[in-house]
Amino acid sequence: MLVFLKLGGSLITDKDTPNTARHDVIQRLADELASALQASPGLRILLGHGSGSFGHVAARKHGTRQGVHSPEGWHGFVDVWRAARALNQIVLDALARAGLPAIAFPPSAFIPARGGKAAPVEVPALVAALEHGLVPVVQGDVAFDALLGGTILSTEEVFAGLARLLRPKRILLAGSEAGVWADYPACTRLATLITPDDVKGLNPALTGSASVDVTGGMREKVTLMAQLVQAFPGLEVDIFSGLQPGSLFQELIGENCGTRIKLKDNQE
Length: 268
Hints:
alpha/beta, two-stranded antiparallel sheet, 9 helices, 14 strands, 39% helix
């Protein structure tokens, strides 16, 4: 079974302090991933991660998400790429310490964009990596855009661009929140199940990120994931907190620790 797993930027970095990784959290998550793969031999993972206080800070400074149209803008584009790349190496090093055969597939090198959206792609090398038991690693990254010159794609948008090719059974989004709060900002009532029909009613409770997040935060995350479960019947998406030790392992072996987004049972 193929699972797309994202380690959110709010989970693996201190989003309020530029370029600050949570090394202990990253290593624990890498170890839980290794344990889950050992416990479930048929499990295949495409791993993605956010940019947190690395890429988002640089992206806001340069306005890269909105487009790149000048020499100064392209220098900023590279600054954002460099920041995202630095965090990517930290994640890769932790995966290696956990004994995982992880290999990087930077989206800036193979996913084109149009109007800020990832285009569907054919990636035979990534498919081959999965077939041979490797763990491909993608991340939120800059992208060359046919309309905007350059832009930024969130990890969720990268997943959307790859979903048509790879058809995952589950998408797991590990962040710092317990899931989607139905009564944000009070945060006393968790929405444990969301269908695409529910998203409009939840919109008042959905917000962007409380920290720097140029790609839209929870609102964009839930909206995009609801579109994916609508497009691919049978797909389930879980949004949960990775801060609780053991929660990632539980999710990877099939449990739901937060909010699940799926079609109504009679629609599948």
